[in-house]
Structures are given as structure tokens and as C-alpha cells.
């Protein structure tokens, strides 16, 4: 196939009419073309000779082509040899160039080393600085020729010159700036300035030694003036330390500012070394005189120190801190802001207690000098924590005495039911302490302060809130016949006064405020403390304590209203319901219950206006307490006649209406009761109505009565069924057969279900309820 493609390509390039050149050549057809007749065979010899001649020509052509290709190979070899020669010449040129360059470098190196040694002896540091760098650069080119003795000798001479320069420059600085106790022989000169430029090129240790010796000499006076045994070394004169270094830095800038290269940052290095020394010296003197440290003195020293650190942050970049001995960047989370000079709104009482919930402000850039000195105060912050413990203890005691002296919030005033002012005072002080402490340290002292906060949150909850809740001993005793008669005659049962109700609501509101603010306090503490300590900040126990105060307050309000209504319910159960002859208006006990509700609920609602959800909880808890109690008293009304049952049904409807309206009773603004509350009332009071409907139904035939009971009440408890029979006044013998029939008629519980019989019925829809009420009203009118 490949040969065919080649033949086709050749035919296209060299077209031919010769039959021998055709791809589909046929020998028989070609011979027939040459000899078409027998007579033409006579010329066969001529034809054969022509073909042989043609073959010889083709052979000659092929031979010529083959020989031509042989000559091409020879020509190629000749070209290759020429190229090789050119490459050799190119390599030779490159090597020659390199050799010339190396010889030039060698000449420069030799001359440079000679000049370097001469300039070093003459202390021509300006020229040395320019030459030395060039010599060092040239020497790098001979790194691979160090095996050559002459090159190695030059390299050793360069190293010797560098060593001599380092020693000589250090000696020059030592002579100009002698050690402590010696007198300076002169001020800065251009020689030393040029020497610093040379030190930049030498071993880095030379530069470090120059810096170290200069700073040590520059701060030697400080070490003498502020020795531990000196009066100015104590915390009360800490300002003098910072005033001294400020003067020294100004003096340095004027006298030596141009001597050292700018990139050495000498002014910052002096300040940083001063900070290291000061931190060490202050730590030493505070350990020695620890008993003399008072909180005011400590805070004064910290304030002045953090102010100084803030000044350093404004003046310097902190680029040298990583070079300082023993210093790590951001050694502490101390803040340079002075908490005691801040224009705190809380100082004049105008700061609002919700400051803890303010939006987060963008953080200021980190101060690289945080704690560079003030870190030394952290071991002594226990003095501050102990002081806050004492201050908060006195504050709680003052709250207690103020409450006793001023009494509870006055009813009918703006203060009635409001958050106690002491609560806001406590958290404003907490915020101040938290901010102060976070500016001193965000480590263990913050954890210690958090523990103090927890202690006094609990004390506030116990002493100020729970400790001032009204006692219920006045109405905790049992009911007497006299009290029942008094209640029946309209006598008001003993209960909390309006002032006491206002106090309970005020304590509830305060506990809610404390709960919410304690949660915010926990969040703020976690923001400020070191990340590794965040898990140790937990105020859940204190929040639970305030939740308990809230629950107890609501329970007191419920118990008070419950106790006020108890005599009315007892009077209901004592009435002779079998003797009722006609259905009239609502019974006196209903009027009494409604009266107590109208007396208490508006007061509670108005005083809990700022904590609406807890008023709703009160309504729900009261309803959950009253309805079961009402049903229990309903079962005690026995026996009941048909008319008596109708009267009770009317009373139940009246109570249901009042309970549905309970959240907005007595209010000019009518609010729709929460759906969760309405559901509880409808479900509970519908059960009471169903009980009375069963009582009104005839007990014969028994099967119909039992099925009707099961359908209406959906209660599989035989005891409840027996109570219903007692209300109807059935004898024990009749009840036995009824109970047996009741057990038989109960639906079979689902397979695998636990417990006793399970019944259910749906709460009537509003339309069904309205229809039932209309029927009941018609019945009452008919009876009347």
C-alpha cells in the first residue's frame, strides 16, 4: 500500500505517456501493441534492441543518482568537520574571555587587598566601606579556585583585614564611648559614622556588639539613678523613669542621631532596652516590697506605664522587637489606652446599663509594645482582684441597707414594677471592672475577676431579689368555717397588697434584666480573655439562678391569686346543688373569683409591661392551676339535680369567658390572647362542661349513658367515672354495675400500647362552641 502511494505521488510529479510508467501496466497488452500482426514479428530484433538500449539508459541514470547521493554524504561530513572547527574556535574564544576576565578580577583582588590593608591602618573607613564590598564581591568569583595557593592566600588576607577592621572599629567605639565609670574622650565623628558603614559589611556580630556596647553605655546612668535601694525606684515615682528616658532619647537624637545608619533604628533600640531593664528592675523591687503595694498605687503605676507604652507605639514601628533579648512580640494583651483617664459616661451616672450590648467597635491596630514593661505588674494583680472583691461586697451590703431604708417601689408610680436601680449600678460597675482588668491583663487575672463576678451575681440574686420577695405565711394556713362564711358573704380573703404585687413584679423584671445582661457579660468576657482561657468563662449557673428567681416570682403571683379564689371554690363545693330550684344569674362564688381576677391581673399586667412574655407565662400557669382545681371542686358538688347541673354549666361558661379574656381583662387596649393560652383554657373548661353534660344526661339505659360518657369525656379512668356517678347521686349498688359496664365498653387499646385505655376527642370548633352556647342560653331563658 505504501509503494502504491509512492507511485501515485511520482506520477503526479513526473507525468509520462509511456505505457511502461503506468501503474496498471499489462505486459500482454503491451506486447500486442508492439506486434499487432504476424507480419510485424519480422521486426522483433529491432524492438528488442531498442528495449535493451532503454534499459541501459535507465541503469546509467540510476547509477548517476546513486553516485550523486554518495557525494552528498561526503559533503555532509565536510560540513560537520567545519562546524566542529567553528565550535572549537567558539570555545577557545569563550575560554580566552573568561581567562581575561579572571585575570582582571585577580588583578583587582590583589590591588584591592593591598589598598584595603593600607586604608585599614590609616582608619580611612569611608574608602574602606566602598572598597571592602567590592573586594568581597570579587572574591566570590574565586570560590572554586581556592585550591590555588595564591588565591587562597589572597582570601586569607581579606579575612584577616575584615577581622582587623572589626577589632579596630570596636576599639574606636570603646575609646570614644568608654565603659561605665570612665569619662568620654570625645563626641561623635565622621570616622565613627564611616565605621558603622563598614560594620554593615562585616560579620553581623560586629554590628550587634557596637549596638550593645553603645546602648549599655548610654543607659549606664539609668542603672545608677534608679537602683533598687533608691527612693525614686518605688512605684509612686515611676513617672521619673519615663521622664528620664524621654530626655535621653532627645539627647541622643541631637548628638548621635546621624552617626548610626538609619536602618539600625538606634533610637527604638535604646527605648526597647530601657523597657527590658525597667521591667526587670520593677519586678525585683515589687517582689522585695510586695507588702507595700496598695491597689491605688498599683493602678497608678500601671496607668503611667501603659501610657508610656502607647507613646512608644506612636513613635516607633516595633521593627527591633524580634531582635531584643528575651522579648516576644505582643508579650501580653495589655492595652495602651488609659482606662482611668477615659471620659467614661458611667462616672456621672449617665451611662446606660445596656452598654454591654453595644455594637462591636472596630479594634484599634495592635500595639507591638503592649506589656513590654507592664507585664511585670501581672503577678501583683491579685491586689486589684482582692480590692474589687471588697468593693463589690460593700456594694451589695449598701444595696441591702438602701432597700430596707427606702422600701419597695411605690405602687401607682413610674417606679412600680420597674427594674431595681441597684441592678443597673451593679452591671455598670462590672463593666468598669472588666474594662480595667482587660487593660491590665487578659490572662489568669480575668478568670479570677470572673469568679468574683459570679460570687456577687449569686449574692445579688439571693440578698436583693429572693430575699425581698413577700412571704406567704399570712395566707398559708388552712381554711376555717369562719373564713368560708366570710367569703360567702363577700369578705375578701387575705392576699398580697398592691405594693407587694408591685414588688414581686419589680423583682421579676430585675431578674429578667440580670439574666439577659449576665449572658451579654459572659460574651464580653469571652471576647476579652485569652483564647486559651475562653472555655473557663461560664456564667450558666448564675443565669440559672436568675431564672429560678423569675419562676419563683411567677409562682408567687399564681399562688396569691389561687389562694384568693380558693374560698370561693370551697363555697361552691359546699352549696346544696340538689336543692336548686331554678337557674338564675351566675353564682356568688363566680362573682368572687372574677372580682379577685379583676383586682390582681391588671396590676400584674401593668407592672410586667416591659416583660410581656412573663405575663403570658403567669396567665398560663394560673390557668393550668385554676382549671384542675375547679374541676376537683366540681366533683365535690354532689349530689346534683338537673337544675343544679344547669346552673353549674352556666357558671362554668361564665368562668370560661373570663379566663379567655384574662390577658386583657380591665385593659383599655384589647389584645388577642396568645393561641397557646387560648388552647389551654378551651381544652380545660370544655372538660368541665362535658362533665356537667354527662351529669345532666339520664343514666338509663346504662349502655347509652356509658357510651355517652366515653364519647364526651374521653377518660378511661374508672375513678373519674365513679366521681361522675357520685355527682348524679347513684347508689353504690347501681354504681357497681355501671363500673363493670364502663370497663366492658372501653375501646380496646392499640396492640403493643403501654398503660391503660387511651381515649381522645377533638376540641370543639368555635362554630360548634357558639352553637352550644346559644342552646344553653335558650335553655336558661326557658327555665327562667
From TrEMBL:
Residues 78-403 form the Vps53 N-terminal domain. The keyword 4Fe-4S does not apply. Residues 646-730 form the Vps53 C-terminal domain. It is a peripheral membrane protein. InterPro entries: Vps53 (IPR039766), Vps53_C (IPR031745), Vps53_C_sf (IPR038260), Vps53_N (IPR007234). Residues 330-339, 759-768 have a biased composition (Polar residues). GO terms for biological process: lysosomal transport; protein transport; retrograde transport, endosome to Golgi. Belongs to the VPS53 family. PANTHER family: VACUOLAR PROTEIN SORTING-ASSOCIATED PROTEIN 53 HOMOLOG (PTHR12820:SF0), VACUOLAR SORTING PROTEIN 53 (PTHR12820). This is Vacuolar protein sorting-associated protein 53 homolog. It comes from Esox lucius. The gene is VPS53.
Amino acid at each position: 500500500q505504501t509503494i502504491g502511494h509512492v507511485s501515485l505521488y511520482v506520477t503526479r510529479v513526473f507525468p509520462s505517456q509511456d505505457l511502461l510508467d503506468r501503474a496498471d501496466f499489462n505486459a500482454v497488452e503491451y506486447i500486442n501493441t508492439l506486434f499487432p500482426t504476424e507480419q510485424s514479428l519480422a521486426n522483433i530484433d529491432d524492438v528488442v534492441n531498442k528495449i535493451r538500449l532503454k534499459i541501459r539508459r535507465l541503469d546509467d541514470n540510476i547509477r548517476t543518482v546513486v553516485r550523486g547521493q554518495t557525494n552528498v554524504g561526503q559533503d555532509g561530513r565536510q560540513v560537520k568537520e567545519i562546524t566542529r572547527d567553528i565550535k572549537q574556535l567558539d570555545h577557545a574564544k569563550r575560554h580566552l574571555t573568561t581567562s581575561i576576565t579572571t585575570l582582571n578580577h585577580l588583578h583587582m583582588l590583589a590591588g584591592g587587598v593591598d589598598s584595603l590593608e593600607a586604608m585599614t591602618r590609616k582608619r580611612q573607613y569611608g574608602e574602606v566601606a566602598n572598597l571592602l564590598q567590592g573586594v568581597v564581591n570579587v572574591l566570590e568569583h574565586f570560590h572554586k579556585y581556592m585550591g590555588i595557593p595564591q588565591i587562597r592566600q589572597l582570601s586569607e588576607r581579606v579575612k584577616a583585614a575584615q577581622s582587623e577592621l572589626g577589632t579596630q572599629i570596636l576599639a574606636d567605639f570603646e575609646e570614644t564611648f568608654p565603659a561605665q565609670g570612665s569619662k568620654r574622650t570625645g563626641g561623635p565623628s565622621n570616622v565613627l559614622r564611616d565605621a558603622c558603614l563598614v560594620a554593615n559589611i562585616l560579620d553581623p556580630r560586629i554590628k550587634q556588639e557596637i549596638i550593645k556596647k553603645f546602648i549599655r553605655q548610654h543607659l549606664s546612668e539609668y542603672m545608677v539613678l534608679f537602683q533598687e535601694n533608691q527612693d525614686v525606684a518605688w512605684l509612686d515615682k515611676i513617672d521619673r523613669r519615663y521622664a528620664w528616658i524621654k530626655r535621653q532619647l532627645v539627647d541622643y537624637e541631637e548628638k548621635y542621631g546621624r552617626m548610626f545608619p538609619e536602618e539600625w533604628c538606634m533610637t527604638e533600640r535604646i527605648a526597647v532596652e530601657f523597657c527590658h531593664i525597667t521591667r526587670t528592675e520593677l519586678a525585683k523591687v515589687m517582689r522585695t516590697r510586695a507588702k507595700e503595694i496598695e491597689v491605688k498605687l498599683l493602678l497608678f503605676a500601671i496607668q503611667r506605664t501603659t501610657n508610656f507604652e502607647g507613646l512608644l507605639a506612636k513613635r516607633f514601628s516595633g521593627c527591633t522587637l524580634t531582635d531584643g533579648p528575651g522579648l516576644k512580640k505582643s508579650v501580653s494583651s495589655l492595652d495602651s489606652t488609659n482606662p482611668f483617664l477615659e471620659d467614661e459616661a458611667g462616672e456621672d451616672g449617665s451611662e446606660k446599663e445596656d452598654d454591654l450590648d453595644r455594637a462591636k467597635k472596630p479594634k484599634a491596630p495592635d500595639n507591638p509594645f503592649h506589656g513590654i514593661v507592664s507585664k511585670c505588674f501581672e503577678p501583683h494583680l491579685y491586689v486589684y482582684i482582692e480590692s474589687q472583691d471588697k468593693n463589690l461586697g460593700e456594694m451589695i451590703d449598701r444595696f441591702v441597707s438602701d432597700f430596707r431604708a427606702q422600701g419597695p417601689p411605690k405602687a401607682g408610680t413610674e417606679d412600680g414594677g420597674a427594674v431595681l436601680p441597684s441592678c443597673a449600678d451593679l452591671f455598670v460597675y462590672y463593666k468598669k471592672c472588666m474594662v480595667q482588668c482587660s487593660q491590665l491583663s487578659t490572662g489568669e487575672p480575668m478568670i479570677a475577676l470572673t469568679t468574683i463576678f459570679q460570687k456577687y451575681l449569686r449574692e445579688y440574686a439571693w440578698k436583693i431579689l429572693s430575699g425581698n420577695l413577700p412571704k406567704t405565711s399570712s395566707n398559708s394556713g388552712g381554711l376555717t368555717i369562719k373564713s368560708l362564711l366570710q367569703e360567702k358573704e363577700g369578705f375578701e380573703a387575705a392576699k398580697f397588697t398592691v405594693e407587694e404585687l408591685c414588688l414581686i413584679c419589680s423583682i421579676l423584671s430585675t431578674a429578667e434584666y440580670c439574666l439577659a445582661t449576665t449572658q451579654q457579660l459572659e460574651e464580653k468576657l469571652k471576647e476579652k480573655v485569652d483564647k486559651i482561657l475562653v472555655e473557663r468563662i461560664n456564667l450558666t449557673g448564675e443565669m440559672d439562678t436568675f431564672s429560678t428567681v423569675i419562676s419563683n416570682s411567677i409562682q408567687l403571683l399564681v399562688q396569691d391569686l389561687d389562694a384568693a379564689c380558693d374560698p370561693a371554690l370551697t363555697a361552691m363545693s359546699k352549696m346544696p346543688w340538689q336543692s336548686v330550684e331554678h337557674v338564675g344569674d351566675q353564682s356568688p362564688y363566680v362573682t368572687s373569683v372574677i372580682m379577685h381576677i379583676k383586682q390582681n391581673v391588671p396590676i400584674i399586667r401593668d407592672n410586667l409591661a416591659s416583660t410581656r412574655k412573663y405575663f403570658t407565662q403567669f396567665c398560663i400557669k394560673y390557668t393550668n392551676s385554676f382549671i384542675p382545681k375547679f374541676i376537683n371542686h366540681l366533683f365535690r358538688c354532689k349530689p346534683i339535680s338537673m337544675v343544679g347541673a344547669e346552673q353549674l354549666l352556666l357558671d362554668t361558661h361564665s368562668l370560661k369567658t373570663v379566663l379567655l379574656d384574662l390577658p386583657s381583662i380591665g385593659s383599655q387596649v384589647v389584645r388577642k390572647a396568645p393561641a397557646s393560652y387560648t388552647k389551654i383554657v378551651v381544652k380545660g373548661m370544655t372538660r368541665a362542661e362535658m362533665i356537667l353534660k354527662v351529669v345532666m344526661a339520664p343514666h338509663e339505659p346504662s349502655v347509652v349513658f356509658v357510651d355517652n360518657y366515653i364519647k364526651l369525656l374521653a377518660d378511661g379512668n374508672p375513678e373519674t367515672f365513679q366521681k361522675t356517678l357520685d355527682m348524679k347521686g347513684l347508689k353504690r349498688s347501681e354504681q357497681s354495675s355501671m363500673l363493670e359496664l364502663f370497663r366492658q365498653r372501653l375501646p380496646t387499646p392499640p396492640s403493643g400500647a403501654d398503660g391503660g385505655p387511651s381515649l381522645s376527642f377533638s376540641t370543639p370548633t368555635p362554630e360548634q362552641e357558639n352553637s352550644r352556647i346559644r342552646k344553653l342560653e335558650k335553655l336558661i331563658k326557658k327555665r327562667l
